[in-house]
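Reopening this one. Same input as before:
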Amino acid sequence: MWTNNKEKKMNLIGLVFILLLAVGLVLLKVTGCISWSWLWIFSPIWIALLILVILGIGILIFSNEDDVKRN
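Same output, byte for byte:
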């Protein structure tokens, strides 16, 4: 279950990318370069969170099915 250094680095790179993208979009919105809704400005963050929630629910569902099959 433990992740190695390479996986940790990839996770960190993904997190940094999402945060930099969100900060970049906020800066573009504040400076008036884009007129998007704030919903879309923060979309990199909420889309990533939504994906994590869906994956977490999927893991819970499939791990419970494996436990039921073992008993």
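So the earlier flakiness isn't reproducible anymore. For the record, Residues 15 and 63 are 26 Å apart (CA to CA).
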